[in-house]
Write a structure and sequence with these properties.
The complex is a heterodimer of chains A (250) and B (320). Chain A has one domain. Chain A starts with a helix and ends with a helix. Chain A is 79% helix and 0% strand. Chain A has 13 helices and no strands. By secondary structure, chain A is mostly helical. The longest helix of chain A has 28 residues. By secondary structure, chain B is of the alpha/beta class. Chain B has two domains: 218 residues, P-loop containing nucleotide triphosphate hydrolases (Rossmann fold); 71 residues, Alpha-Beta Plaits. The two termini of chain B are 43 Å apart. Classes of the chains: A mainly alpha (250), B alpha/beta (320).
Chain lengths: 250, 320
């Protein structure tokens, strides 16, 4: 039973992942991701100017903003394309549970994002060449970045199930992810505490990816941050299954 | 193999399918007829587990589609109405993916792909990307997908739509051959297809089954079905009419004459007695010594039945 599920997930994930690399999407995406990463790290991040071989500020700091547009772009077609072309009917009448298809698609895109993220290794190599960055912090940073991408992606999977239009799926997902950044971004929270009670600001900020991602950036891997990212993913993917069920019911 | 009981599907206030009940056994091919929007596709989507029914039951090979969907879906091959395929894949890649989803693995996948490619005439396009295919090929690719796991139940939504006459013929032959061992239900607009392929036909209109029987039974419902037409020479029309009218089994008789010939149409007194009328007319013709060049029984046409059953009353009134 479980082995059947794993098989189905793997088959769907494989098809989806090959779909990225069979089209220009994967290559365009990876090139732009790496170019922007390099630009932010070395030009805006002041990688060379800050005088320390650390990746936290110049590199990982930009990822919430970079992912804000790139992750929805990578994931917007996952369900909306199935709905538009009618292959949804084909997929869901096969002997596969909806959750298996959702997880399969999510994993495929997440693996794709992980590949893109892994290709940023020259940045690490540069830091290693110039000095001795904290290996633990770097690994934690990458883990945080991957989880952040996963959380955004799960939101995108959800919005793509809501519509057959990829553009709408993209915009909705950018807006939700933007809120996830904004609610806990230091610049916003430091202003908000002036007129709102602390507990309110903190509660809203707790929904944000920022404080949790910041911990990883500092090299701190805490259970509650892991739980946060996993909950965002589980919640979004579960909502996706509800959306798909309603789609067929009504 | 397919058991449907009191199936209902509501979309908001609209009843798309209303209390449909039928069964399809192994070895049966059920033709599913009806005007556009009658509920054919909705019914098929419920059969295949894509739409959950509002109420009622669907069981495939004994597995309830709502309670045990995976076991039921394993038995079904399904061709959706629009014949959707993943357009970013090659035909071979797409079919291999479907085979893998159906539980095949290793060499069995390649074997299955080659088998269905042969059956559906896709050998020439296996390496082509689906989005470069013409409509007919794309349709057959999706059809191939539905039989890749040699399912016991086939649900085909307009399987010959978009094919040229030769391809239509091939697909019909294929369905007919497969129908010997499987339970097949397919929908169509083409009535000749039903006569050529189906062992049973069902007409659905506005969500309700309005006729269900063998094609011959349905045709017998047509107006004028079972009447006998006779054309004789050198005899007065009045004589022909009165003699024919005196037959025990004959009902109404109408005659018309042109040149030297008299055409007579005899309607049976009792529609349900088959073959008696033609025999009686033939015997009479021989006894009277009439010269004739035509004598046949009207079978009735499925088109007429279909129109009579499914035309909205307003349109019927206008046509009269």
């Amino acid at each position: 039973m479980l082995s059947d599920s794993i098989r189905n997930i793997r088959t769907i994930a494989k098809r989806e992942l090959m779909g990225y690399f069979n089209s220009p999407v994967a290559y365009v995406f990876i090139v732009i991701f790496l170019l922007l990463n390099g630009f932010f790290t070395f030009m805006l991040g002041g990688f060379f100017e800050i005088g320390e071989a650390s990746l936290a500020r110049p590199f990982f700091n930009w990822h919430p903003w970079l992912y804000l547009f790139l992750v929805p772009a990578a994931g917007m077609r996952l369900w909306s394309e199935e709905r538009r072309t009618g292959t949804l009917e084909l997929l869901l009448t096969m002997p596969v549970a909806a959750w298996e298809a959702i997880v399969g698609k999510f994993l495929a895109c997440w693996v794709f994002l992980a590949i893109a993220l892994a290709l940023t290794f020259p940045v690490v190599a540069t830091a290693m060449y110039l000095g001795s960055p904290d290996v633990g912090a770097t690994v934690a940073g990458y883990l945080g970045s991957l989880l952040l991408a996963g959380a955004y992606l799960a939101v995108t999977v959800m919005t793509s199930a809501l519509t057959r239009n990829q553009v709408i799926s993209f915009i909705m997902s950018v807006v939700i992810c933007f809120f996830l950044i904004f609610a806990g971004w230091e610049q916003v929270t430091s202003l908000a505490v002036r007129w709102a009670p602390d507990w309110l600001v903190n509660t809203i900020a707790a929904f944000s990816v920022m404080p949790h991602f910041m911990n990883f950036q500092r090299g701190v891997v805490e259970l509650r941050d892991l739980v946060y990212f996993v909950s965002v993913m589980v919640f979004s993917l579960f909502t996706t299954s509800v959306i798909l069920r309603n789609l067929r019911g009504a | 193999m397919i058991t449907v009981e009191n199936l209902v599907k509501e979309f908001g206030p609209k009843k798309a399918v209303n209390n449909v009940t039928f069964t399809v056994q192994r070895g049966e091919i059920l033709g599913f007829l009806g005007p556009n929007g009658a509920g054919k596709s909705t019914t098929m989507r419920m059969l295949t587990g894509f739409f959950p029914p509002t109420s009622g039951k669907v069981a495939i090979g004994g597995h309830d589609i709502s309670e045990n969907p995976i076991a039921a879906k394993k038995l079904i091959g399904y061709l959706p109405e629009a014949a959707p395929c993943y357009s970013d894949m090659t035909v071979r890649g797409f079919l291999a993916f479907c085979a893998e989803m159906r539980g095949l693995s290793g060499g069995a996948i390649a074997d299955a792909v080659n088998r269905v490619a042969g059956l559906c005439f896709l050998e020439g396009v296996l390496h082509q990307s689906v989005d470069t295919l013409s409509k007919g090929y794309r349709h057959r690719t999706c059809f191939a997908q539905s039989i890749i796991h040699d399912p016991e139940v086939l649900v085909l939504d307009e399987p010959t739509d978009g094919l040229d006459p030769n391809q239509k013929h091939e697909v019909r032959q294929l369905i007919k051959r497969m129908g010997e061992k499987k339970a097949i239900i397919f929908s169509t607009h083409i009535l000749e297809e039903v006569e050529a392929v189906c062992s049973r036909a069902m007409i659905i209109d506005r969500g309700t089954v309005v006729a269900n029987g063998t094609p011959a039974e349905l045709k017998a419902k047509a107006e004028g079905a079972g009447s006998v037409t006779l054309r004789v020479f050198g005899t007065a029309a009045e004589t022909v009419k009165s003699r024919l009218g005196s037959l025990m089994v004959a009902g109404k008789v109408s005659v018309s004459s042109a040149n030297n010939a008299v055409s007579a149409r005899v309607f049976p007194r009792d529609r349900h007695v088959n073959g008696e009328l033609a025999k009686a007319v033939a015997e009479l013709t021989v006894k009277e010594g009439w010269k004739f060049d035509e004598l046949h029984t009207e079978e009735g046409r499925l088109d007429d039945v279909f129109r009579a059953i499914t035309l909205p009353d307003t349109v019927k009134a206008r046509n009269d």
